[in-house]
Amino acid sequence: MIITTTNSIEGYEIEEYLGIVAGEVVAGINMFRDIGAGLRNMFGGRSAGYEDEMQQARSECIAEMGQRAEALGANAIVGASLGYETFEGMIMTVASGTAVRIRQVSTQR
């Protein structure tokens, strides 16, 4: 499954647009990571706990979106985007894009 933020894929032709697909993940951050992030906020530095959680959520989100596209018969997703929101100690990650069926363009002349 090719997943790209662009609207086309070099060397491929979009044969059919199958619809918008999305993946959603809402992940809680444990209190120890919250405490560590609060200290880093006061004194500066990166929050590895939050970064790890966001990376995990992003991977799960993209995988879920890909599964939903495959269920529609797609072999690619174009125009993919990611969004993040935080609320009440949780991180919500959403990935969306357009599921498409593509075919490789012949380069023989």
UniProtKB/TrEMBL annotation:
It comes from the Bacteria. Signal peptide: none annotated. Belongs to the UPF0145 family. This is UPF0145 protein B5G02_02340. It comes from [Collinsella] massiliensis.
